[in-house]
Amino acid sequence: MPKGKIYRILGLLIDINEKNFNWYDACSICNNKVYYNVGQVICYKCHKNDVQIIQGVALTITIKDSSGSMRLILFNKQIEYLLRSTISEVKEWIEPVNEGSKLKEKCQLSLYNAYVFTKFLQVRILLYYPTKSIL
Ligand SMILES: [Zn+2]
Asked: Whole-model pTM?
């Protein structure tokens, strides 16, 4: 894919890597990962120090279309959309005491549905929305 273009892909969601949620501290303004330096919380995207922190999370999924399959990384809002749940609910479900059964159930509901994924520069998915289930 050449850079600088937006691509829309209609893909079937074939895998959610539910064992590998990647949790991190994120900037409350832009949702990017923050860094710590000498007691300060820095967001390099906003060019600000001491930003408010929110819970950030990333999740890898695999989609498939007629030309092949592709792995994508989803972030907070997209994960909430996909699992029809809040990030705090997801966090609770992956606690060892809950054995991930609720999470598994939620993932099953999303699997094998078709979504339109919008990608920019192969880096970030900007938005997606469901079309219809093909099963
Ligand atoms: Zn920021």
From this structure: 0.77
